[in-house]
Records
---
Amino acid sequence: MAIWDPFLSKCADIASDLVLSHLGYVFHCSINIQKLKNEKENLENERTRINIMVESEKRNAKIILPDVENWQTSVEKMKEEIDEFLRDEQRKNMRCFKYRCPNIRWRYRLGKKSKSMTESVTSLKDEGTRLMGLPVAHSPPPPEIHSAHEHWNSRDHIFKGIMEALKDPHFKLIGVHGADGKNGCKVVVTSRRQDVFRKIRQNSVNQVDPRVVKEFRIDILTEEEARTVFMKTAEISDNSEMFPEADVLCRECRGLPVAILAVAGALRGKERYSWKDAVERLKNSKLDGIVDIDQTRFSDLTLFSTLRLSYDYLNREDTQLGKEAQSCFLLCSLFPEDAEISIDDLVRYSFGMRLLDGNFNTLEKVRNRVLTLVKRLQEDYLLLDGGDENVVSMHDVIRDVAILIAKKERGYLVEHNLEKWPETINNESYLAISLRSQNFHGLPNELEGKQFHTIVLKCNQSRHTTIPNNFFKGIENSLEVLDLSEMSMFSPPQSIAMLDKLRMLSLNGLTRDIALLGRLESLEILSLHGITELAPEISHLTRLRLLDLSNCHYLRVIPPNVISELQNMEELYISDKFEQWDVEATNQERRNAKVDELNSLTHLTALQVYIPETSLTLLNDSWSSKLKRFRIWIGTNWKTRAYVKYSSRRILGLSNIITLEAKFKVLINKAEDLYLNKLEDLRNVCHDRDGKVFPELKYLRIENCNFVEHTFGTPKMFQPTPRQGSFGNLSSLSVDDCKGKYMFPLSVARCLVKLQKLSITDCAEIEEIVINEGQEDDGALNFPKLEYMELFKLPNLRSFRSSMRETSIKNADNSNLAQPLFSETVEFPSLRTLRLRELKDLREVCHDRDGMVFLELNDLTIWECNNVEHIFGRPKMFQPTPQQQGSFGKLSSLHVWECNKVKYMFPLSVARCIVKLQELSITDCAEIEEIVINEGQEDDGALIFPKLEEMTLSNLPNLGSFRSSMRETSIKNADNSNPAQPLFSEMVEFPSLRELELRELKDLREVCHDRDGMVFPELKDLTIRECNNVEHIFGKPKMFQSTPRQQGSFGKLSSLRVENCKVKYLFPLSVARCLVKLQGLSITDCVEIEEIVINEGQEGDGALIFPELEEMRLSKLPNLRSFYSSVKETPIKDADNSNSAQPLFSEIVKFPSLTKLYLYKLEDLREVCRDRDGMVFPELKDLSIQECNNVEHIFGRPIMFEPTPRQGSFGKLSSLRVQDCKVKYLFPLSVARCLVKLQELSITDCAEIEEIVINEGQEDDEALIFPELEEMELSKLPNLKSFYSSVKETLIKDVDNSNSAQPLFSETVVFPSLSELQLDEIPNIKAVWNINTPPTNSFNNLTSLEVVLCDGLSYVAPSEVLENLSKLQSLKVYGCHSIEEEVFRSRRSNNEEGIVPTNVVLPHLSSVTLINLLRLKSFCYGIKLPSSVIWTIKNCSSFLRTEVRATTDS
């Protein structure tokens, strides 16, 4: 045994640790859950910060990086999981049914799961922290702008209406339809056709409430607007000799912009005879047999003829170029509506379909010709620009014209959104088809007798499609182009090998039989998507000019010698995820190709490939010499590839390369996009004395590199006036995590005349962006095109550029004098967006005396610059009247976050210039005292922010006032006091402000002091949170006139949220009467509030009405007693010095539109509503009252209502939840009879309630009916005896002076629609239904019944009830310890024999759950249940298992 002791001891230790760790889940359950809540809050804070960054980038049309979007999605999913978990958390306090002990199993599960979730949350939070230090988005490459947008007066009211609807929180769906075509949270739907918008509303899963819908119709242009656009596009004037013809043609365009642009563009620059000819053509035009015109798209057939004219004029001179332009136009009709049409696709189709002259015999020649044709079509407004220079699009109306012409003249059939193979193919002689379907049904076995030269089939489903093996039989000698790129299949049909004339082929998802393609000897263009292994037989395709494997992201095998055999290859695209190039292996051992096979491709003009550093020596100089377009990644550890926007023609990436051979510098000189990563010494790549490196470079990204300054040369290396060679075309520069003390020498910086974006992040050593080279300054440095700049995590950065004079002064006194980041020495006349973050050595942002630094700045964000003291300059630095349109004059968005040394934001002189500011957010600035600081001059009237629409002031503990006037400041200084000032007063006005959020302003006492009602005339959304010293929000009582101006401050307020403030009231009465637009009101955690509306002493002018209020939440207001007390009620209360219970709501305040009311933890509340005339809540649908544990009356007191009250208040109530209240009853009978719309009723934790409905003494006229009630929960009601007792039942009970058991439900109350009933912990009920009088027409629709811990029950119901419960599907009975014999008690005969079973009862019953019923013996003697019932029986020791068989019909 001694031998085993160490082993056993070790096992015991392991077991002990294991047991203790698992017990920890139980004992530390609450701690683990609290940690989870804390980490959830931290994660939400991180999410808020990132969301602010993301939304700001989106507003600037930036593209959010995928890892950021993925993180946001993960956080949202995690939040939902945590919320669901925390909702179930209360179950950890459940007690075992029998012994009332803590539920150990649930505590174990909760403790374990909460710990696991906490770890996941922490991981997500840490990832968010990492992302906060990186850019979250990148700019799209600047497209060529080809626009014909005009300002049309007829659209002004529509545009304004749409903008109003977008800003109005009331509207959820906005529809725009009409003649202009598509111009395209809230959902904004745009379409030419109004019926599309209406169908969306009708087919919505949740029917859209018409009250939250706004619809706009865009009509055709007015006659004057149409003529103006036509003349401008055609470049003629009213005095032109062509005016008569222009006038005729313009009228024929019917005011449709797309037609006007197309016709006018076609005739621009033409002689008058061409104009006259156009008019004649239009007059004599016929539809030439085109009879199947879509009347919904061409209601006016003249419009079709007009657009046809533009097509005809492409070849007005009958030239080869004109014919090819028409062919290119019709080719675009094969693509889907609204598609972005790739130039690459147009090139490949044009080559494969032989659309161009035979002299265009290389892909490069075809590409140049296609670009020429596309440019021509764009100039004639027949094609539109796409998202970048590599794609175009076609207006859907123009496309419809193209489809009709192509069908008539070229035999093209274009049918999309098909459900099956079109039968028309069998009846017509088509030459080209483009068909798209969700799932092709009925594909023919063969295409015998057809003459197709082009087939394009697209299938929208992701599943694989099977094409019949003989499908291509019959078109072997005609088919030249086959595109199945969006139709996934395991293998191609066998007949594909017979397509002898096939020139272009595109397939998707092949996993076998790829070798068949080796027989297609005429093939010149091959595109394969989603394959993992290329077949060796592809080497037989010796005529192949283009091989595209770029979408084969899981490609693992390219057999040896396949590439090298394709000697005619002009374009080769291999997925940059393919990394399996062989290096040293011999031919016998090789499975994959070697990189040196590229050396054989002497005709190569386009290449996409990833080349490992180990293979670089295998390449010679020849392979890259003819490259016109490339996307080449060289080296290792590439992460940037996933985030690159591939719009450029020439992309080169270098990573982890020690030495770059000269043969690759040819690529560097050709590159438009260059990515440099982990290069130890940039001098090996970028050394340039003569300005010849990077002549074509547009986009440059540098990551994790040393000597970054050598990218652009060292000071004095360049001549004072260098040639504009290197970097002269650079438009975007991004530098991340690099070493170096500066970025540009001054001479280089002066060459960056095309730079549009500059991003420098995480460069710890950098001190200046531009370094002076010793020569005299030659005026300000100007970046004329720079639009976007971000400087992140540069802890030593002090200045963008220091002038010679500043540098000399600094050196002379050997001081570290704080310099501004920007000053007059550098100008950014086009900069629109500036982001500064974590610049720890920065003291001042901008020192701009003449207002020329930021003329166009639109968006400014400053984060975590903790030593910044001045942002917009120092007080008195500006002249009293600075230039209105100087720096910051166009600023529209300002975000400042965690700048803890800033004491003010704007000097007054600057604030007066910011006339375009629309959004202001200042957060976590610990020392800020004022937003606008006075500079000593006399105040010149109120300060106005005319365009400001959104403002957030958050966590500013020392903020006292937005702006103090000179007079207020003098008074404050004179008496050396710190009197409470309002945050806003008449000294500052916000005529356009719509959203205002104030949060954690700890020094704030009063929000707004506005005598004349001009501060917030447009305010719609006001949120005030955790301003826990605020005493007055809307002014002090009697401050307002008795009849204030209706449309002053707050007159348009629609949403108000107040949380954790010190207020004793919310509104003075005079203000409350102005809130005619208020729709949402939420007041939370205001512990001192006693009334919502306070009387100001004047006599009331009738009831106070909130006409549009729809939702109200009052939560955690322990001292709230009344919403509003009238003057009459207040003196009575004061006279008798009593604190008599007042109702929260009474007839003196009315809410005619309120649909949702939530009351939570109103501890001083005694009565909810006293409504004699039934007019307080006529529209209320959802009422929730929770933990108002002193409430005694909710719907009024008995006998207070008339016997037949008007169906006013509560008549539309559909959902009612009452939890933890002191009520002894819920409804007086007269109220209950009004609840004809009630669908959901939940009453829980009301310890004193005895009846749900109380009789008021009048004679019962008929049974009480709840006609629409579907769900009922009665839980933890220890004193509940009956749902409702009629007068007769009460009298009978009183006469015999007995306490005989009443059923919970009797025939006096009827529930014809009830489907779910849950009874939980109601110990006083003896029976659910009366054994003598089973319910009639009640409970007939019950599908689910759950009875839990009702210890007074001896049975659930008499067996007679079962006939009424014919729709019951689920029955659960838990822990009802008094149930003895049966769940449903059967009636026995006199001789005690059981009833003989007859028909099966409860035919829809699917599950029965019986738990902790120790005395139960049978379900119900003498009945049969369906055999399909699933039984769950636990801890029912007396229950006979044979009973299960006996009570089923099996």
---
Amino acid sequence: MMMAAKTTQAMHCYRQISINNSQEVQWKHLNIPLPDNTANKKSQLMHAAFGGGFSYKNSGNISSVSRNRFILWRCQDDVVQLQEISLDCNLVENNVQLRFSNSRILPHIVIKESDRNVTILLATDHSVHRFTLSHPSKVSKNTTNHNQAASDTAMSVLAGITLQDSLQHYNYAGLPDVGRTTSAELLDDTSAVFAVVLPSSIAVIILPPIGSNDGARIMEIHPGTFVQRFISGLMFGSKMITSSDSNLLPQSISFRRLSDGKLYLFMLCPRYQLRVWSIEKNDFILHLDLKAYRPSSVDSDYSAADEQNMLSTSCGDMGEYIGAFLCFPDHAQFILLYPVFDNGKLKMEYLGSVNETNSNIFISFTVTNENIWTLWKTSKGETLLKFLPVLGIQKNPLGWYRVNLSSNETCDAAALNDADVEEYFMRFIFFPGRFSRSMIAKAIQITNHAVTGQNATLSGVYGEGNSPSLDLLIKDVISLMSYQIQSACDAYDEVSSEALRSIQESCWSKFCTNCQNFGQIEREAIGIFADSSTGLACIIRRNATSYAYPTDTIENLWNEAIISSECVNDDVAILVECVRLIRRQLSQDLQLRVEYDLHRGLDPVLTIKDVAEQICGNLINATVSETQWDLMAKLEKKLIAIRNISAAVSAVIEFLDVLEKINDADQVSTDGEGIEQVSCGRLYSSRMAMRILSTALTDISHTRFEICCDLLLLQSCILFFENKTILHEGDHCHILKYMLIPRTVYLLRSYYAIYWLGQQPCSAATGDEMEFNMRQLAALEISSSSGLFSAIIADPNYTLSELYLTGSAGYKMRMLLMQSEIWCDRLTNSNNWLLWPDVAQACFGKLMQLFWPKHCSVPLLECLIGNCQYEEAKFYINMVNEITEEGLAEREFMLGQCLLSTGNGSKALECFISASDGIIANKFFWKLLMSEIYEEKRAMSLYYMRVMRLFEQFSYFNLAIIAARTAIDSIDPKDPEIPVFWSNIFKYYLELGQAKEAYNALVSNPDLERQRNCLQLFVTVLCEQLEFKTLCLFPYEGFVDNVSDIILSRARNINISSNCYYDQLYSFHLYRNNFRKAACVMYECALRLAEEFVGITSLQQQAKCYLVARNSLQLVSADRRWILCPELQLPVSKSNVDKSENIAEINTMIDICIPTLKSYVVGTKIIEVNDISKDYMLVISRLQILQRDSNPKFSEGQFTSEEILVYLILIGLFDTAFSHARVFDLSYTKIFEGLAYKCCSMSNDRKNGYQIDDEEVAWLKANDFSFISTIRELRPADLAWRLLQHYLDYFSGAESGTFHACVANKLLSLNCPLPYWLSLSLKKLDVASLLRLYIQYDFLSEATQLVMDYIDAVHGINTAEFGLKNAAHADSPSVWLPYSSIDHLLKLLENISSDMELIKLKQELKDKLGRYLEFADKISLIKIDNEKSRRMTRELQGIAGAGNIPFQYTN
């Protein structure tokens, strides 16, 4: 039987890709106990691990919730692993592991679907079980309030498996004996029927409907007599049969509901007998000998019947298929039957068969609507997946079509070249999805035991069931390899670099081989699954799943798969034969060498030419070998058969090239509504689908890369026939050299770039790095149409292609697919059905466009940079630059971003500058980067604005300055953005601490408003950095007042306790000789300190401010020593001097000192130097008080000058008190009285014998005793009296008597005798006051003696003691006596009768007073006579003068 080249319209060839469980699956574990009435012991019959799958009946329907959703299972011993997979959304709780105690799982598991439920039917060797789950449509409605299509995740139906439900009596039943194999089916009333092959019979168990109170029913079918027996309840019984009857038991059974709606049990029995049992009739209704379909040419010996015979049933669009795999001694045969009813009688229609040798081990097979899929294993342990179209089997095909496996799993040391050994192997071992963590952990343990002899690794023994973390595995692998390499090196005295590398390669290769060996075990194929609805086929492996994806024409042609004469012309077919002829002469490292050239940026053409020369030899000199001559002869013969060589090569190139270009994501319309938008929006959007598509795309690109290598090698070999006529006709040589070979190299580089993306794992990026990266990209104001819109946090479990697919590429693929013809064709179908081969090919085509370097490198680079894949993006840019110059500017910009993010700012700036011209010319990139409106005139300035922001994000201010200056030099001088550039230059210089350059940038800014803003920032920053001197040095031409305003504004807005702006402003004015402004600033600072800040520190600062302000005013002329200061509502009295005559100058001071901050100022007043001196004195006095008394009241609040004077006197600060009183024009009287009081107190204490402590005399030390040279020889009381005497002598002016009198008054009031020096002074200054004080305070003795002494002085005795200029004489001025005081004294003395001393003094006073009065009378008479004589003389002189008579005086 021969098969046509084209069987059906949907004919496809396939390749398979393996998806490993690299990320450890989180299983939900359930332990199911055995029923109570079964034997609690495992069967001795072992079953090989097996697997399979189930697909929903609407899995291919576009609008179905269960679209592209299926369940896979893996069974090993007593464990069943159930895994639900969706290609459209990520499922939650979709992994369940069931363990059946003391049991073994029987082949096969059956999953059935109804409108409301999904039912899992399985059997162990001791029991049967049913698990009823909610249908996905019901789960969707119960778990979300919105359309499932809009959600990225969905709840798996497996989440409904619970231990409680599994133990319900209606969900399980025990077996009467140990089961061997099984099949099951779901009945319409939710009952479940099981058929289990027992050692001597077939048991049919019917579980009751869900929720029923009934028990299970069991029926036994005995093969020997074909007699059935029903046994109800749990009472088991069976008819004993002979051992020969057991040979009739079926090897494989399967339930199937046929077209009549009835249920039948198909049984494949020994000796290739097919029997059918009717459940309704309880009887066998068909017996068919399958040997009848065996070819007549083979041996008819059936004695060696093989138990590998297998039966499969499938329901398709055309009806039911019954497939039987028969294993004969000399060959294997697959037979496809079609059940039909003839007058109500079941018959089997033979469709066809396929023979196969017994060289391979058969594992499993399945039949779908389109294909028959078989799974094999070779003698070397390799897995083979083969298929055959169902309709093609009728035409007697030549055999199965093999599904090739992706061959990118090998780790070849020859591919190392000059790469780092550790990096190369670590990348291979930890490549996403290649090995599971458990595989690597086992390899570590084995290697560690071989090297060290210990089972424990450096981090301990890995616990069973506990998957080690990825970081721990990486650490252990590196540590173990380092130890092994070091141990190997220790065996040599000296190790060269070449020997060390050889040792490293050897050790790493062995470890990698261990990983691959364990990986091969975990990737052992155990079953096959094919979805009849969509055509998706999978190989179920122990810890992985392989998916078959469709291939296109050129790949099929190159890999010797199906050849359609309608798709490929004869010239191309012969060309492919030439490639195969040359390929046989090649070693396997050609692709590795080309990959190395491309990876290192070398020209692969040189390598290809070198290989071509080795194959073809030197034909000119005829130095080739006989083998080469034979090859060249065959090659020449085939080339001659090609009618047009260049056209054939061009046709292949056209097949390989991606001609359709996607210019902009905005071309993808998203405005559609309805089923297209909802369904396609999530098509193939799950994590698993992303990995499948990415892996398949990588495999396709690698296959096409190999094709390009072969094609390029063929063209190079053809050029060796340059002198032949086959190349002269049509100038093929020229076309090959200058047109086709460059195009082939272009394709070679392009496909390698796509392949590299699928082979490069992502670099780990933390959340902080992603956040910083997003801030960086926000500086560019990237629009939402870019690949950054859906950035995710990349991790090493993604490849770069997966990363891009998960982001914008997947979204664009689905939108493009929605607009494609295949999608529209499916929508016109009433069933809205999707087939995996058709849709997958369409997806691969769209993805190839999205990944094509020449057309779509920018969105891909955006995705990489958006996910912190900087090194990968740089490498990809270098590769694409070798491919095409189109989009060079965009890539230069992206390269600049990468360099900037990796710390190479200088090169990044070069890239940005290089990209500027090209970006302006590219409207696509302009729209993506800058604005929705293209403005060519502003393009350059806006571009450099973004560049500046990028450098600013990384604090590369010096480079941002260069970018800004480049922009200023490049753009129009009238561009409105120039002031912005100067403002940024100023800001960056300020950030760098270069104040001079910042000032120059400030004055260069043409915008006055921006100048002011920059000036404010300039002043503020320098003030905060305490760069006062720097701030003062700049000229500020035209901005002096602005600077002053800015500093003052800052000063008034900042807390005065930590305010340095007043100091800066003072320095600023002082540097410019503006002394009055400087004084005004300091005075305001002092006022704010008094208002807002209390404490000794505030007083100290106030004192400095007042002192500086006073000194500043002292530097100007006397008539200008005043300032206009703001009124801050301070309760300190100041004298407001009327300066109305200087009203113009006052207005000027208002403009200078109170510029704009009126909210802080409630009024103004004029302050003179004296006012400042008073404020200064008030603060100094308080500070000195605080030095003697730490009471906080002196540092808080406000005090008048009188109050401060009192406190100064109280604590003995008399020096300060006198200064304070002088400044405030206060009387000294209180000060002298206070000092007198202290002197009297100390004298009294000494007289009374009291000990004077240091605290009582401490006030003395606070005063100045520099006028005393022998201070140590005096006692404290003497010092006090000397101080009093000093002050009285110091103030010896007009008020000296008053001060002496007040002191005497105070002393006498304290009953303290006056010291001699004081009384002596008073005698000279005011004896009358002294006398009155004596009399006032009853010092009568002293008063009497004073009067007598004074009378003596008047008589001329001790006249100087009383300060008299002369005594009482007739010819001298009159001398007076205090008569009233003397009379008062005499009157007081008259009243004394008991004090003899006073009586005696009274008498003496009276006597002396009597004598004085007598003397006074005489003196008075003499004075009268003398006065008369003088008057007469003056009269006579007057008469003589009138008459001109000379006057002559005669005695």
